Amino acid sequence: MESTLQQQISAMKQSLLDEGFVDGHFVELELLDDGDNPQFTEEIVALFFVDSAHLIADVEKELANDPINYVKVDKILHQFKGSSSSVGANRVGLQGTKLRECCKDGDVESLKVSLKQLKEEHATLKEKLDTYFQLVKQLRSEKKTAGHPNEEHVEMLAENQLTKMAITKDEEVDVVKGTGNEPGKVVTEEEAVKVVSDESVLIVAN
Q1: Residue 173: what are its φ and ψ, rounded to 5°?
Q2: Higher-scoring residue by pLDDT: 16, 158
Q3: Considering only CA atoms, which of 157, 87, 71 is closest in space to residue 122?
Q4: What are the residues whose beta carbons fall under 8 Å from the beta carbon of 73, sequence distance 6 or more?
């Protein structure tokens, strides 16, 4: 049964798909996450946002020139489209395509309006995916904690096991509590396990 956090993550991913922010390429990318690199998708998407931000800045810089080099702008937007497609950034990619169409028409005003919309889509997607990956990271942390008991618990289990092993071999066991030097009496398995569970002890097999 899915936890509340897992349900929240699933619902958010479905919302991103339904609203067209991402497409199937994003889902396929997540399938590449594994035990060796559980943050693969997050890292790839982070690189996309860095690279795409530079490309947007390059377009903005070119549109400030007079005359505008439309061939160069189109080349930058072509690169932007490919980068968006690789991570499944659907709406951002579509907005990039819209800019290319304006570029081919030589419509400067439409280019500037579309660029503004692209920057807004880009910022919105980054905000949504930042939130999504924060939830994914939280779930991963919870699973890791659940699968690895704390050190104190592990030590207690180990001490219990040592006690059981010594008694199973019918060896005489001295239980020395704390830092005292007075050895305790020979105990039964049940008594030894209780002592180890209750207090810090040193097990000495004779």
Answers
A1: -115, 125
A2: 16
A3: 87
A4: 59, 62, 63, 103, 111
pLDDT tops 50 at residue 173:
no
Q: How confident is the model at residue 2 (pLDDT cuts 50, 70, 90)?
A: low
What is the predicted pLDDT for the residue at 198?
A: 47
| Cβ neighbours for 26, distance < 8 A, ≥ 6 positions apart | 16, 17, 41, 87, 88, 89
Question: How many helices and strands in the chain, by DSSP H and E?
Answer: 8, 2
pLDDT digits (tens, 9 = 90+) for 8-26: 999 999 999 999 999 999 9
Alpha-carbon distance of 10 to 174, in angstroms, equals: 55
Residue 192 in contact with residue 155, Cβ under 8 Å?
no
Give me the phi and psi of 43, to 5 degrees please: -70, -40
